[in-house]
Amino acid sequence: PDAADARPLAVVTGASSGIGLELARIFADEGYALVVNAEDAAIHDVAGQIGGVSVEAVQADLATRDGVEELVRRLDGRAVDALVLNAGVG
Length: 90
Description:
Structural class: alpha/beta
Radius of gyration: 12 Å
Number of strands: 4
Oligomer: single chain
Distance between the termini: 41 Å
Low-confidence stretches: none
């Protein structure tokens, strides 16, 4: 496996801005590969804001069954080492 495969994997929801984005940056600084999620298109900009690790963006609304299934599908059976459930509107 390559170095990206050897990294632990963190999934961070609500990662397009605010607390979720900052948490994603912290995990990246700690060497985690990332799967980041948000329902808005800004999630696709996150990879450009976080360097040094693999970042996969998943735009999906986790308030829907289809959105949850899309996120799970994109994990493709990979083991998740850290899961940060930060999605929501307050």
